[in-house]
Amino acid sequence: MNSLLLIIVPLVGAALAACWPNDRTRPWFLPAVGGVHLGLTFWLFFDPPVVPAEAWLGFDPLARAVLPAVSLLFLVCAAYGVAYLRIRSERPNRVFVTMLLAILGLLSAGHQSRHLGLLWITTEAVTLAAVPLLHFNNTPRAFEATWKYLLVGGTGIALSLLGSFCLGYASLHGKGEGDLTFAALTAQGTGLSHPWVVTAWVLLLVGYGTKMGLAPMHTWKPDAYGEAPGMVGAVLAGGVTTVAFTALLRVRAVVASAGGGPMADRTLLVIGLFSMLVAALFLLGTRDFKRMLAYSSVEHMGILCVGAALGAAGVAAALFHVWSNALTKGSLFLSAGNIRRASGSPLMDDVRGMAVLTPRSASLFVAGMFAVTACPPFGPFFSELQVVRAALGAGHGLATAMFLICLLLAFFGLTRVVFGIVDGRPRPTVRANSRKFVETAGVVVPSVVLLGLSLWLGLFTPGIVRDAWQAAVAQLYPTP
Amino acid sequence: MSGTLNLLIGLAMGLNLIALGSSRLPSLIRAMSLQGVLLGMMPLLMEHERLDWRVILVALATMAGKGVVIPTLLRRAMRAANIEREIQPFIGFVPSLLLGAGGTIAAVALARGLPLLPEHVGTLLVPGSLAAILTGFILLIGRAKAISQVCGYLILENGIYLFGLLLIHSTPLLVESGILLDVTVGVFIIGIIVDRIQRAFDSLDTRKLTTLRE
Q: Is the CB of residue B62 less than 8 Å from the CB of residue B180?
């Protein structure tokens, strides 16, 4: 019942926010609902319910290992949203607040989906609910980004529907019932028709990979993250992408039970490393610091895929990385949003000297950059270290070398852009623009909190969180 | 039964080619919506022995959604933007037709290679679905106008729907209606964005959407 509340509470909140008459007080719905959601999530986290195998929805170990991070990220972003929407009081926020809350509810449903069809419906609904958030700024550039997001994302999600049907047909063809719950599909195991399982895996990898933003299906990401408000980027990069990742983990478990495990792992490893490489190369070239964050997100999705390809130890590391990436990237998106607002431009050709104009956001941006490029002692360092150890343990020497080279290239790319906009003397136009932006506690503290959480996760990873990751691994890799 | 079904799928495959060859938007939208109606009739035909109200409901909703609601939305967007003709597509009309015809033959050949259940061997469901998916991709890539691309996306969806008919006995109604709802809402949102692009750029030519790049 409580697991249903995780979905119902945000959706009811969204409906109330849609009816709320006052634009000034409406944003308070965000932290209120986010707080209730976080409380419920942690209640379920500490006291996990028993999920019946045939249930379509449930707070199962995999949901338990990921959803708390999403809920935490959402609450902090929601707190930022109150301050942000006060600054942007010239724009109506009814649709913005409603859709953000709807996304929280749909994300909770997506993470808890144990049925392939239901998973697809929620992922598609999240994709559509994010559309009004992307063009919140109402500029031609924002509409261009939204159009590309809709076409690329829509095609990807359509292919994942085809993949879901193929998996259903694999079950029918293998004399099964065509039951699309993950439990039933895994139970059928080698009974699934092999050619159809392979077809389904390719289509689902491309489909959900598009949603995650894996290269070469990542093209919507720089546009969308570049034009959307910073807090939307944080929720998309830390929350929406993880639904697609858990979807891939669940599908991989089905494919592995049908005897396609090695094939699935090979494709995940290749697409993961390719995403990291593409992202690293674009990071070396981009001059826009918000698009930079998008490429960094592509890189981290690649890291998740590499982790997922490395067996049980790798999946545990990938789940760790889901947490550290969500929190760190969230902090980076929020501070980048402040700098973007103060400077009036996202290009490093126009923007420099932000250390003088917005000292707090600039120092957070630099600290967040070091955290996200895996400098110790932040969370990403430890999670990526675990991925490397899993890779070496599985005997992937060459892949490890490539992994580390991509991380190094990404580090060069990120430092180039970040120090380019932080250092130097500000231009007069930017200086004039930044007078309108005041670094209040409301826009700075959320970023500090997320960075602090990332640090805490790296230094003192709580035992119960580790246990949750291990329980999820046990769900995905059942010991016969 | 299988004969009538194959006739409908064959008609739908012919509509793919009409969609590829039409240079005017209204005829493209008409081909797409007619295909949607044909698709909506298929579950009734396949299930005619054990027809219950749920199958009828889904079929009616599909026909209304794909045949009436979505085309009306697109026509409204088209009239607002005051465009009728697709001028200079990325892939010309004759090359698209040739690609589509070649793709249809390839789809039939490919479907022979896939293992099917005995009751599906004689039907054109799989080749029809592959051909529509391919047509959708050609339109998505090869057309410059936003509305033509949306039609391409919908034909792609039609192809996936055809494939989904293979699972008609096992997919629960809830899932089917959820999918239909998502697609309809998706097109509704696309319609809004098309309208905004028209206002922001004063055109629906996606070749003008080139500000964002590296």
A: yes
Verify whether the Cβ–Cβ distance B146 to A147 is below 8 Å.
Answer: yes
- By the CB < 8 Å criterion, does B164 face chain A? yes
Instruction: Give how far the C-alpha of residue A101 lies from the chain's centroid of Cα atoms, to the nearest Å.
Output: 16
Interval A407-443: pLDDT, tens: 999 999 999 999 999 998 888 888 888 888 888 999 9
For residue B161, pLDDT over 80 is answered with yes
- Give the span between the Cα atoms of A55 and A77, in whole angstroms: 31
Separation CA A160–CA A130 (nearest Å):
18
Distance, CA of A363 to chain centre: 24
3-state class of B145 per DSSP? strand
CA A333 from chain centre, in angstroms, equals 12
Each residue of B197-213: pLDDT tens digit?
777 777 777 777 777 77
The question of ipTM being above 0.90 is answered as yes
d(CA A450, CA A226): 21
Say which residues have a Cβ less than 8 Å from residue A370's Cβ, sequence separation at least 6: A378
- Interface touch B182/A223, C-beta < 8 Å: no
Among B125, B142, B138, B162, CA closest to B17:
B138
CA atoms within 13 A on the CB side of B201: 23
Rounded to 5°, angle at Cα A133 from A130 and A139: 130
3-class secondary structure, A181: strand
DSSP state of A190: G
Chain-centroid distance of CA B174 in Å reads: 22
Whole-number Å distance between alpha carbons of A232 and B45: 46
Report the predicted TM-score, pTM, of the whole model to 2 decimal places: 0.94
| Identity of the residue in A124, A151, A168 whose CB atom sits nearest the CB atom of B170 | A168
CA distances from B34 to B3, B37, B124 (A): 20, 5, 18
| Chain B from 66 to 105: CB within 8 A of any A CB | none
